[in-house]
Amino acid sequence: MRSLELRMHLPVATVPESGVRCALLAPRLSLASCVRGHIVRSTAGLALGPEQRYNHFPASPLCAICWLFQGGATVVQRGDQAICEVTPRISLIGPHSVPVVSHNPGPVEALMVALTPAAVEALSGVPVSSLVNRVVPLEEVFGAAWGTMAQEVLRATDDARRIALFEDFLEPRWELVRDGTVLRADRFHYWVENLALRAAQSGVGVGMRQMERRIKQWAGQPLRDLRRMERAEETFFRAMASHQRGSLDWAEMAVDCGYADQAHLCRDVRRNTGHSPTDLLAAIEQEESFWMYRLRDQ
Fold first, then answer.
1. Paired strand residues for 77
2. Which one of 57, 223, 242, 284 has the minimum C-beta count within 10 Å?
3. Using only C-alpha atoms, what is the Rg of the chain?
4. Which residue has the higher pLDDT, 205 or 47?
5. From CA 22, how far away is CA 118, in angstroms rounded?
6. Residue 42: CATH number of its domain
7. Residue 63 lies in a domain
8. For the HTH araC/xylS-type domain, which residue ranges apply (predicted)?
9. Please, what's the b/e burial string for 213-248 (b: 16 or more CB within 10 A of its CB; e: otherwise)?
10. What's the number of domains the chain is made of?
11. For the whole prediction, is pTM greater than 0.90?
12. Contacts by 140-144 with C-beta closer than 8 Å and gap 24+?
């Protein structure tokens, strides 16, 4: 009930006809096991209403480095909790076990680089478990060299240059630690399964509880939650494809994606996004603030 009350206070926003620049860009191949993607978004020069400046994000095991080149952002809801946390201009976003809503008070131009938790821990030396459900200044996690790079990216004037600066900086550093991390592939599914395999092989006679503790230490969240997010991601893309073909059947989708029944699917979708499946699809089609769900690889 508390979650419903909070959502009722967030205004409904329609999707603007055109003008918003928003894209998901793939990283260079050498960084595919570290970077899941670059997200660029700009509402500069657009006459959007306040209700169109909200941003809805699902629960996610990923981390992200975020630059705000223009404008600002404030986290206004995390899970069921109404909050007011101003986002630093250059920040590290930790894994989130609950959906999040943020608000831009005016036009914004931003870049988010989505990183695997294992990569963040390997590159920074900071346990990712300490970053769950947090947004912190980048310099609290990474060293001075990262801060210098981040300022160079902040001064760059176009997306291609910004991404190139970041990837040129990251590539040699990732090469040094890549073989010592769990990630060998760029797909979330293989990463989750690799976590379980690594935990099982990390000692003779390892019990289930000890395995779960190790996985939570490495990823910041329990294996069951990671697998729930993995299944939700797969279900989301399959549901969107079926919806666009006009053949979406939620009961059938639940069975095909490994849920006990449709109610089980609905509970997981609400837990990851804060919305029922039907409401989520409608919001993706009709509300600007759900732009994150409309992103596709480019």
1. 82, 101
2. 242
3. 19
4. 47
5. 27
6. 2.60.120.10
7. yes
8. 193-283
9. ebbbebbbbebebbbbbbbbbebbeebbebeeeeeb
10. 1
11. no
12. 140/92, 141/92, 142/92
- Per DSSP, 60 falls in state B
* 107-116, 117-126, 237-246: least confident range: 237-246
Q: Alpha helices, DSSP H only, in the chain?
A: 2-8, 117-124, 144-155, 159-177, 188-201, 208-219, 223-245, 250-256, 262-273, 277-286
Tokens 């999707």 correspond to 15
**What percentage of the chain's residues is helix, strand, coil (to nearest 5)?**
50, 20, 30
φ, ψ for residue 198, nearest 5 deg: -60, -40
Q: How far is CA 33 from the centre of its chain?
A: 16
3-class secondary-structure state, position 100: strand
Cβ atoms < 10 Å from Cβ of 212:
15
Confirm whether 151 is domain-assigned. yes
Tokens for 160, please give them.
């291609």
Residue 169 has pLDDT above 50, yes or no: yes
Nearest to 178 by CA among 261, 119, 112: 119
Domain that holds residue 166: 2-182+288-294
Percent of the chain with pLDDT over 90: 44
Distance CA 66, CA 104 (A): 14
